[in-house]
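Shapes recur. Our protein:

. . .
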Amino acid sequence: MIILDPSTPLLLAAVVVALQVIIVTSYRSATNCSHTCGGGGHTIQYPFGFSPGCPIQLNCTSNGSTTIGNFSVLNITEETVTITVKTDCYRQFGLVEGLYGPNFAPTDRNAILLKNCTKATSCPIPPIKTNTSFESLCTGKTKEKMGCYMEMAQNTPAKFVNLKRLKDLKCSYLLSGILAAASTNGDSLSLDIQRMELGWWLNGECKCHKHAQCTKVLAPNGTRGYRCRCKEGFIGDGFTNGTGCHKDPSTCNPLRYLSGHGHCGGTTRIIFLVGALVAGAAFMIGLGFVTCFFRRRHHRKRFLYTTKSRLTEVTSDCTIPIYLYKKIEKATDYFSDKHRLGNGAYGTVYAGKLQPGEWVAIKRIRHGNTDSIEQMINEIKLLSSVSHPNLVRLLGCSMEQGEQILVYEFMPNGTLCEHLLRERGDGLPWPVRLNIATETARAIAHLHSQDPPIYHRDVKSNNILLDYDFTSKVADFGLSRLGISGITHISTAPRGTPGYLDPQYHQDFHLSDKSDVYSFGVVLIEIISSLKVVDFNRHQHEVNLVSFATDRIARGLVDEIIDPSLEPHTDPWTLGSIHKVAELAFRCLAYHRDARPSMAEVAAELEQMRLSKWSPHSDEINNCRTSSEMESYDSSCSSTISEKPLSGSMKNREQQHRNDKVPAANQPIPSEICG
């Protein structure tokens, strides 16, 4: 038996403490790097430190806080350093250079807020996010315009913000910063206000501990760098010249669990065994589902990012209002079935009130449909650039929380197609039909008169909407294309609706204004006949309405295609004008585009027919003829139509839509909005 002196334990404790001091002292001597800030300050891990011998030197203030340049350090991770960039309306732009060091630089997840920039900035974060958070802080202090720069908006593979491009903006002030981070499922984008993220690295080739992983980094200046990270089950800084990696004492070894020698106890061993069996079974069953899930998630992330970038680009160039998503939700009672008006190929339409007493149609784009997003962007561009009484008005949009929403003026009387097919009401009298045709022709002629011209590319009765007074509104610009000034056509793949598509465009891929003329000719035949454009219930030689109608018109048998409800033989003017419209439609439907009239000429002829009903002298009609270019109509020729009275059911429906109730679901917003 060995008897120890009472002072022996104290001696052993002193030896242990001395050894620890020697190890720490030798480590600090080897690295010549201080990792502690102040007497009672916090300690940071290699390669960071507070003395010149540290690979990445940070600043230690008198109060014990850590800074980089003039900015406080919030957090240091294995890849990044997060700093605070408080809002300062007069912070000089040159201070941004303090964020670039030999071993760190701002990452591409930063949105840098600037002021008084000479060149235009680019940023995928919606302006409403930055404006509400920062602009009000500088109101009244300076009139310089605020800008936002983000490297992701430059479509480059860079992982860091390019300092040269940032300087090229020639800005006066560095206002603040926003750190943008996508959620784990990619459904939303979180924004950390007044924060910036710096990526860090050590220069040269990898010098990591044997139990560490090396991540290679390409520095902003093109040189090679690296970072080290301990593998799972190990802790430490991971660097050869640092503390390296050592076993994590809190980690339990699964093999020791199974063998019964693990220090975590028998209960944990049993739990692990049962869990392993369950996990193995789940893995075998769900392997295919997991693969499918990750593919879909990756596609969704790319889709959401592309959509946000495209919509931000579009809405920054136009003046349509951008509504808060919460306001849209409130207007539709959180998209309740009570407000739902209909479903379409690209989304669902709801009735709502964004202003007291004013109904609007709200189209909620269905998620994951790339074509619908492209058509939505196209519609925003075109409808925000033109204005005409007979073009549907786009009142705004919303693009928050992964949602894409368009807001239109409310069209209570549905589409022309619904009335012609008696899906809505008891049919339209001929003067009303002629007026709708005239107004529609004016609207399309207006599109063609723009510079460059606009080709609608999907003119059809389903895209002609009717308001309270049955005034027509041309809608659905998702397929529309801009022409080229001075060029008669553009080359593009045929798009449109079967039965309305220009056959020569379908053959040679040449889209022109005459393609819209052909489609409008089909609409004129619908107005005369009230027949479907394609109907397989008709005789096989009459399935296609255009072929059937042009055959009858060419043979002088127009009466065979006239809607009987029009009772044309009771009124000479009605019968004569129907025949004239049929002849005009026949010319619009010519196979060769050069044989078709222009849309301006079509509108002028329809206007003359319309006015002949109420003008007692033909001389007055001739005085109302417009030029072939249809630049404008003389005010004396645009008198309000006094067509024969509408039926009682029409008046009742009009009164119903003017009241304050939610529009009935069986009286939907036109199919243009529905799809």
Remarks:
- Confidence is low (pLDDT under 50) at residues 1-30, 615-658, 665-675.
- The two ends are 94 Å apart (CA to CA).
- Residues 266-315 form the longest helix (50 residues).
- DSSP finds 17 helices and 28 strands in the chain.
